[in-house]
Amino acid sequence: MNYVSCKSSELPFAENYKIKMVQRIYRSTRQQRQKWVEEAHYNLFNLRSDQVFIDLLTDSGTGSMSDTQWAAMMIGDESYAGSDSYHVLHQVVSNIFGFDYVLPTHQGRAAENVLFSVLVKSGDFVPGNSFFDTTRGHIEYRNGKAVDCTISEAFNTTIEHPFKGNIDLKKLETVMSMYSKKHIPMIIVTITCNTLGGQPVSMENLREVKKVAEKYGVRVIYDSCRFAENAYFIKTREDGYRDVTIREIVREMFSYADGMTMSGKKDGLVNIGGFIALREKSLFDECSYFIIMFEGFTTYGGMSGRDMNAMAVGLEEVTTFEYLENRIKQVAFLGKKLQDYGIPLQLPIGGHAVYIDAKRFLPNVPKEEYVAQTLGVELYVEAGVRGVEVGTLMADRDPETKENRYPEVEFLRLAVPRRVYTNDHMHYVVIALKNIFHRRREIIHGFSIVKEAPILRHFTIQLEKISR
Predict the structure, then answer these.
(1) What domains are there in the chain, each with its CATH number?
(2) If we measure between CA atoms, which residue out of 303, 259, 267 comes closest to residue 105?
(3) Chaperone: present as a keyword of the record (predicted)?
């Protein structure tokens, strides 16, 4: 047998953890999957988890916790008020992000609900970078308008721009100058920008956005659920940061923000939980009223003490280069293998997921028939792999015209859970997509809507297959 020799400096990359427990997953037949997806009304959210072989629906709350996190859970303090676990979490959040005021919530959308209940009112305009579904939903539910100010390069999936999550400062200035300060409660910066492919925001852009905000006297709030992945890309892509630690980069990033919402289910490395962190005592006090109304007492919010302990450890673990390198290299592995087969992706590959450009993948499916959802269903039937549509269904209808909003790019997102799957699983996904890509021109029809909710419809929508 021949072996490839290499010097010690050329040893291949390997994860710096070992697997301690496994869970069986069921490998179904194509006939079973066809039946199940029909029964689910072609909504992949309606599938049971045991009907899915590899689940890339989301990276939210689906990761594996470390032994240190599990150990921390055993000493969680479940006191209703003044929990020691709250103070542990508060100290970690303050140390990492630099905010003095912290309110736990049960997840990120709960943090948005509380904060936006204070800040957003009817007729407001909230500029930002390609809002994700719940963020836009919470703004529009309050009769506000989310205004996308993302750079134009982000919508061309073939361009290798290193920071496609950046806010276009000219677009931002236009919005800020067009409306009165009293109708712009905040600027929201999502790091990384999920809707556009897990794309990062540069430190320079964060700095300049803060300058614009200060000019007009408006707060900057970060949607921070993948903040550590954003810091990794700043370290590896932005001039001047290669020798700066992840912790130092994070601290500078958040020095340009007035507050943050956080889903701990992503870069908190936990299965449930989140928080709001703020600089202003007065805003903290106002949010506290809504925390008590919607979530729980201020020192536990929507979380148990054990989960606060686990998130505190997770925030420490996620802000190390070693963890981030493992995480992001697996996502890159999936993306690069897909590229080898010519499958069109959002480039560069993001931090938490690979985003397939569904319109380029399925050129014969009309946009009115939900292209990315069509590809998602094809992938599930082909191989039992579940992704999620980030396209017209997720974009919802325009609140005024009630017409479909057609985003510039239709994505099928393959979100990789943290520390869950091996690269063999990723290779399985690649081959499944390769098979579909070879017959892509035979796929000419998608779906029509049978039933939908008035907001955030993609979670519960019912579809029927078009065949004519």
Answers:
(1) 13-59+321-465 (3.90.1150.10), 67-318 (3.40.640.10)
(2) 303
(3) no
